[in-house]
Write a structure and sequence with these properties.
Blueprint: H1 6-9, E1 16-18, H2 22-30, H3 58-69, E2 77-80, E3 99-102, H4 104-114, E4 120-124, E5 127-131, H5 138-143, E6 150-153, H6 157-168, H7 176-189
Parallel strand pairs: 2-6
Antiparallel strand pairs: 1-6, 2-3, 4-5
């Protein structure tokens, strides 16, 4: 066999990238009804059953926000949005909430910052400074986009589990126990296929 067999296990994730003003992003994540809109959209599912729960400390959240305020680059946030019935568990797929595949911790930090629950720690001028959303001017607030993008995908459950493992299997942020949980889910729900 020539090469490494890439075409046998390659997995491309098509997506629809977008940038979102933080204020509107928080409305989407938390659900429009929670923020006084008449649209009444569902809140996003930040911790689907294969995800760990919130694990960032307040300090980690504030430093992440500070990193973004200082112009830092952030990896893409991947969100499942059912756009056709093929990958949805119910016929009314258009009414399902969005499911965060990767980026839960970052989204929780952004929501907490905009809602005034945490501040931002920014290192400049030789010392740490603490800033809040309330201190920001309207133009500064409007300019706050996720410095990477929100990428909406429409993947089958099996592909979401595989994608989650691929995204999180190489880092140190997830324990093997957390990843083993998703591996078990994949094995129990779907036949064991090559390329896992």
């Amino acid at each position: 066999m020539d090469g490494i067999g890439l075409r046998q296990w390659e997995f491309a994730v098509p997506g629809n990238p977008t940038h979102a003003c933080w204020r509107y992003l928080v409305e989407d994540v938390m659900g429009r009804e929670a923020h006084g809109s008449s649209e009444g959209r569902h809140a996003w599912v930040l911790s689907p059953d294969y995800q760990r729960g919130p694990v960032w400390t307040m300090d980690q959240q504030e430093r992440f926000i500070g990193h973004v305020l200082a112009g830092g680059v952030v990896p893409p946030i991947y969100v499942q949005r059912h756009e056709k019935a093929d990958h949805a568990p119910v016929a009314e797929y258009w009414d399902l909430p969005c499911e965060v595949i990767d980026g839960q911790q970052r989204l929780r930090a952004i929501c907490s910052f905009v809602e005034g629950k945490i501040g931002a720690q920014v290192y400049h001028g030789g010392e740490w400074h603490h800033y809040t959303w309330a201190q920001m001017s309207k133009p500064e607030r409007r300019s706050m986009n996720v410095s990477s993008r929100i990428t909406f995908v429409d993947l089958s459950r099996e592909d979401r589990l595989r994608f989650y493992l691929r995204l999180n299997g190489a880092g140190v942020a997830h324990s093997e126990e957390e990843l083993d949980k998703v591996r078990r889910m994949l094995a129990e729900e779907f036949s064991d296929k090559p390329g896992e």
